[in-house]
Design brief:
7-stranded antiparallel beta sheet; 5-stranded mixed beta sheet; alpha+beta; 11 helices; globular
């Protein structure tokens, strides 16, 4: 089992400068390799450049530029070239499947924020001063950097990465672990229904309120973005304004992650089996297609785009996808079972076993469920969670049988 750890680093001023230079030089290597691939394909010969060919050139590149490219770890530079190769592999896969391709783009210095080290001990060393009470990680060309290790690392460290987020630096580890320590069985099963009015409703009738972190920070974000738009390009004032906007977005993202982790942990501790809807969030937040007016060429009819944009913003602010990913990961580590079920009609089906009537009229509004066949009344989200649990148990029994 592989688990990731992320720790805040506390570099000195000189080390922070060296880390920035490392990102700059890896960005230059990435862009140079991308340009080589573009030029080779534009040639009349349509030559294809692969990772192996570019990796073989690293020795000459490092010898030609010892002050920059020759300063950093050889294996980390190979990892940067693999990142580019992976981007091209994804591009060709999307072309082949008929999706929107998205050709790999050049990276600006401020948009290249991570360097990977494929193996602990090759250009980097986690816990490089084990005799010291302060944990440090060593990077070639940078030195021993202090790390705020807020929890122990279990298992053998496999890979190490450096990541920059605004003005902060982080080290990301992946560690190989044995079998996880399972939580004791509780005998409880639950179905959950995620939403916007409430972040989560379960089949037991309980609700988790939606914190709406993005909406709460909207006023500050709007003011910061307006201040940014008034700044002149390439000025210190603009640089500070950009940092202000980035810090606000980062704070919202961290708040959203914190809420998702805590909510998922509560569910995993309380229940042995969790069922949820198999939501296709990417399709849910698509903009509506335009509606041309057949009687007036070039004129379009109202298609509800403004209302759909507001709904999409609320869906993204809730962070369902992140939450479900975290829930699945935590459940796997704790020995719990999570099953995704078809979400169709879960909030329109009467949960009473003797009824089970399905109709859109069963849900007259966002919160209320009223079965037009048997008269059963309940909260719509609770009904949805109950039906999700029932479908999840059916799937589990079919899988076991």
């Amino acid at each position: 089992m592989i688990r990731a750890y992320k720790f805040l680093m506390r570099p000195t001023v000189g080390q922070a400068q060296a880390l920035s230079e490392m990102l700059r030089d890896h960005c230059s290597l990435y862009n140079g390799a991308l340009q080589e691939r573009r030029d080779a394909y534009r040639h009349v010969s349509k030559t294809g450049i692969k990772y192996g060919m570019q990796s073989a050139q690293l020795k000459e590149i490092r010898a030609f530029d010892p002050e920059r490219q020759g300063r950093w770890s050889f294996s980390s530079q190979q990892a940067t070239l693999r990142r580019l190769d992976k981007a091209f592999a994804g591009f060709f896969r999307r072309v082949k499947s008929g999706e929107t391709p998205g050709y790999p783009r050049f990276r600006g210095v401020n948009w290249f924020d991570a360097v990977d080290f494929p193996k602990d001990g090759d250009g980097c060393r986690w816990d490089s001063t084990s005799h010291d009470r302060v944990t440090r990680v060593r990077f070639q060309g940078v030195g021993h950097v202090k790390v705020n290790r807020h929890r122990p690392v279990v298992g053998r460290v496999k890979t190490v990465s450096v990541k920059r987020e605004g003005r902060k630096w982080f080290v990301v580890l992946t560690a190989e672990q044995g079998e996880p320590e399972l939580l004791p069985a509780t005998g409880s099963v639950v179905g959950i229904d995620v939403g916007i009015a409430n972040f989560l409703a379960d089949s037991n009738g309980e609700f988790v309120p939606n914190p709406r972190h993005g909406r709460r920070a909207a006023a500050k974000l709007e003011a910061a973005q307006q201040a940014l738009s008034r700044c002149k390009r390439r000025s210190n004032r603009r640089r500070k304004a950009v940092q202000r906007v980035a810090d606000l977005h980062r704070k919202v993202r961290c708040q959203r992650l914190d809420h998702a982790h805590k909510t998922a942990l509560d569910l995993v501790r309380q229940h042995d089996f969790i069922a949820h809807e198999d939501l296709k969030i990417r399709n849910m937040v698509k903009a509506p297609a335009p509606k041309p007016d057949p009687g007036r060429p070039g004129v379009f009819l109202p298609n509800g785009a403004a209302a759909k944009a507001g709904l999409n913003k609320s869906i993204n602010d809730a962070g369902w996808g992140v939450f479900l990913t975290i829930l699945t990961s935590k459940a796997e580590s704790a020995g719990r079972e999570v099953i995704a079920v078809d979400p169709r009609n879960t909030s329109r089906t009467c949960p009473r076993p003797e009824c089970g009537y399905v109709a859109a009229k069963n849900r007259p509004n966002q919160d209320t469920f009223h079965c037009v066949a048997c008269g059963h009344t309940a909260h719509a989200d609770t009904v949805g969670a109950t039906n999700v649990l029932r479908a999840g148990l059916v799937r589990r029994n079919a899988r076991q049988g």
